[in-house]
From TrEMBL:
Its EC number is 2.7.13.3. Gene3D superfamilies: Histidine kinase-like ATPase, C-terminal domain (3.30.565.10), PAS domain (3.30.450.20). It catalyses: ATP + protein L-histidine = ADP + protein N-phospho-L-histidine. Residues 244-442 form the Histidine kinase domain. One of its GO terms (molecular function) is ATP binding. It is found in: Membrane. PANTHER family: SENSOR HISTIDINE KINASE GLRK, TWO-COMPONENT HISTIDINE KINASE. SMART domains: HATPase_c (SM00387). This is histidine kinase.
Amino acid sequence: MRPSLRLSLITRCSALVGTLLVLGILIALGLDRLLPGRLVLVVALSLACVAPLAVITLRAQIRPILSLFRALEGTVTSYKDGDFSFSLHWPQNDELADLVAAHNALGNVLREQRLALVQRELLLDTMVQNTPVAMLLVDDAAGSPGAIVYANLSARQMLGQGRKLEGQRLSEILGQASPALVDALARGGDGLFSAGEGEEEEVYHLARRSFSLNGRKHELLLLRQLTHELRRQEVQTWKKVIRVISHELNNSLAPLTSLAHSGAELVRRGQTERLPQILETIEERTRHLESFILGYARFAKLPSPRIEQCPWPAFVERLASQVALTVAGALPQESARFDPAQMEQALLNLLKNAHESGSPAGDVALQVRQAHGTLRIEVMDRGQGMNDAVLTNALVPFYSTKRSGTGLGLALAREIAEAHGGRITLGNRDGGGLTVTMILPA
């Protein structure tokens, strides 16, 4: 069996010393009259010999325990300071050994957790430092507005020629940066900007996020170079545009060439009866080709919106005069603020798409709602809806599932919505059909 704790021995020593002290007190009170003289002498001598031994024994037992307690206190203080490298040793196999073992196990767990945390922090710092996105964390608190708290390697290369940026003011760094970056930061929000000219022109995307860190307001700035990606996308887009235009031109020019040849042959033969029909077909194909080219021109040359106050009843009445629609719900009493010509073009495209979806004309509806600082304009139909692939690509320019479609209707509506500071979403309706929602700031 494991021996009991030394405290039990200490208790015995304390009881012995207490007994001896009581005997001494009794002797001092003169109780020696009740005992023979020699016995009193023996007791006194015993007390004189045993008491020092008891004190020495008691101190010898208590000293290592007190030393252990001091060591425990020291290791706990080290844990508070983040140092988990200490462990304790107790030679005896008693209850204190269990306490020391539990203490050492706790230290091992804390040490492993600290090591794992340090490794994660090192991994995260390595990833952030080597990311191609320039990252700047700026302290916007009242005491230090614009002070750079953190900058990764990309930010140092882009804004400081590799020098450390922490501790400097953002305004000082921007004093040496390109004017395009300064203008982009002054505009606020996210967006693209170009720096440099000619072959040295570079395109960047600026993203900004604000948050509180340790009770202080901070702003995170992310700068990403998009030149190569945009050029690659530009080449792909031009290839797609050329394919679409070539296809449409071939579809129109080939019949025109054939009809012109047939008309010339009929004139040569003196058979002019079919010439009006041939000329009518040529005119129809020419108008279609003209409409196709004008659609591309409108998309490429969309001007900035001219915001006006537009009452909803008059605006919707003008739409209804051009395409069949049903108004769902009541129109807002407050006038809207947008470019009426551009918004009319966008909604006409959406309403025509709704009619071409196979929906009954009476189920093509327009609903306008205003709530929470936003304006929601919804065009709904009961057509075939869209599968996931079409929903993903429907707003991409030149994407179309129609044989004669240009893929510009939804793309132009999206361009107009974004020019007004809004966006467009697509979603299938319960029971069939599609809802196209234009969300604009109220």
